[in-house]
Amino acid sequence: LANCAGYGVVDKELSLSEKRKLHGWINANSADDYEPVKIFYKEADVENVTSGTFWLTDTPNTPSKMSNQNQHRMAQWMRCTYKGCPMMVVAVHMSQKTSNNDQGDSEPMQSLREYEMGVVQSWLDNPDNYDPSVDGPVVLAGDFNANQSNAVFTNWKRNNAKRGWYYARDTMWDKDQNAADVGKTFNNWGGDATSTIDHQFYSGFSDVKSYKVDREPYAGVTYISDHWPLTVVYEF
What we know:
Blueprint: E1 7-10, H1 16-23, E2 39-42, E3 46-55, E4 74-82, E5 85-93, H2 107-125, H3 132-135, E6 138-143, E7 166-167, H4 168-171, E8 198-203, E9 207-213, E10 230-235
Parallel strand pairs: 5-6
Antiparallel strand pairs: 1-2, 3-4, 4-5, 6-8, 7-8, 9-10
């Protein structure tokens, strides 16, 4: 947070004992097997913050990894009020490959991807976790490691009977500042943008005011990540 004055963060920092349980061996100092997710928020505008973690596995309430996952994958949620309006954010980082190194749209990878998204859907469908009448609108955002055309997003890209989910980019297509290259977000630390794998889905907001893949340098640094930041402005 040293370079993010005025911002708070919610995350799940694992203790050494938790890391040992995850890795299953005594030397668990490496982060290679663990993909943390963090949510930053502007403290002047965001209040009443509560947060938590669930894992994209068959035991979501326990730090865990399934046998077909290459890394431990998780979701971070934040319940808050933004300038007095209740809302919720769920941030995810889904698997890039399986434990057998299956990638892309291969059947094993697609099966894992669908399972992980199913965990997210089940968590959001539980009113003990998210109740739109109390918690307000919700944004589901993150690195999904899947292009926007993937079938796993079908229920998130159109009006869904249960929650009314929409895909932010579809809402703003006619005003998308990156429409010429389909808003590609993965730059591979300086290579040409090759895919759109970072997404935002939403429910409960009245409109999306802007959508942009931000390719401007930050503090003189051209690439702050191997992904471009995705900026979306919602309206209550």
